[in-house]
Design goal:
globular; mainly alpha
Length: about 290
């Protein structure tokens, strides 16, 4: 049944708010790096996100069967790796560029699952965007090469998060699976962050950690759930493709991170590739 205009507008509003809250949370997290580092910030985000999601979705009532436990374990480890690698990356490079490079993970999943020759154009757009973002070691505005590699590695973890998320049966268990995955990543990375950055768990830092957890995980996840109930998966993917641009704007407004024209062009190419692949994948689905 076709969604009404009111439902569609609600979905668009929710997904835009979700992306804005995620990138606002990332901007706030980056401001904590000089105090507790990416490790402490990751520990705060994952720890409080896991607690909030477990309270909401009660995953112990939906404990996975034996065949789903290994995929959920890898799903949770991918989620944790994605978080800490991304924070390590944006410690070194601007937020918008970090998100654009990280976006190559889900984009690769979408493009490699397609066998249409026309999708080679979207591959070319993505590759061109990445090439424009590769560090120019002699340029004054060159990017940190380690930051670029870390952002691409975070994208690889994002791809694993998507692939193993599908194997866990997320469509049936929904938020409970995400809560379990977040808990697994918290069990691994909260002790690591706590040991390496003990200042992360002081009373003056904890409220900021809760704010980052709410902005980066709990609130956007809830908004995305509302969006998916009122928008097609294809429309959702197309809207999510705007996230690198929103991240760049958040970095500019909140952190004062200025990008060059070439860097903006690179982000635009990644967005075009993501929108194109989303539309192409949507066309392969038969109308219901």
């Amino acid at each position: 049944m076709q969604k009404s205009t009111k439902d569609l507008l609600l979905a668009i509003l929710c997904i835009l708010l979700a992306m804005m809250t995620i990138q606002s949370g990332a901007s706030l997290a980056k401001q904590l790096f000089p105090i507790v580092g990416p490790e402490g910030t990751t520990a705060l985000r994952l720890g409080f996100s896991a607690a909030i999601l477990c309270l909401i979705f009660k995953p112990w009532k939906h404990f996975p069967v034996a065949s789903q436990r290994l995929p959920i374990l890898i799903y949770g480890l991918s989620l944790g790796g994605m978080n800490i690698l991304f924070y390590y990356a944006i410690e070194r490079i601007p937020l918008g560029i970090g998100v654009a490079l990280e976006f190559t993970g889900p984009l690769a999943v979408a493009l490699f699952s397609s066998r249409r020759k026309r999708d080679l154009f979207w591959v070319a757009c993505a590759v061109a965007g990445i090439l424009l973002l590769l560090p120019d070691m002699q340029g004054q505005d060159s990017l940190d090469p380690v930051g670029v590699v870390l952002a691409l590695a975070a994208g690889g973890c994002w791809a694993g998060y998507i692939l193993f998320g599908k194997k866990t049966g997320t469509q049936s268990s929904g938020g409970a699976t995400v809560a379990l995955g977040m808990t697994i990543s918290a069990i691994v990375l909260v002790p690591y962050g706590g040991i390496s950055q003990s200042a992360a768990f002081t009373w003056d830092i904890i409220p900021l950690g809760i704010a980052i957890a709410v902005l980066s995980s709990a609130l956007p996840y809830t908004l995305e759930m509302i969006t998916l109930r009122n928008m097609s998966p294809q429309g959702f993917s197309i809207m999510m493709s705007l996230e690198p641009a929103i991240a760049a704007l958040a970095g500019l407004i909140i952190l004062g991170e200025l990008l060059t024209i070439w860097q903006w062009l690179a982000i635009l190419l990644v967005i075009i590739a993501s929108v194109g692949s989303s539309m192409s994948n949507g066309k392969k689905q038969p109308a219901s």
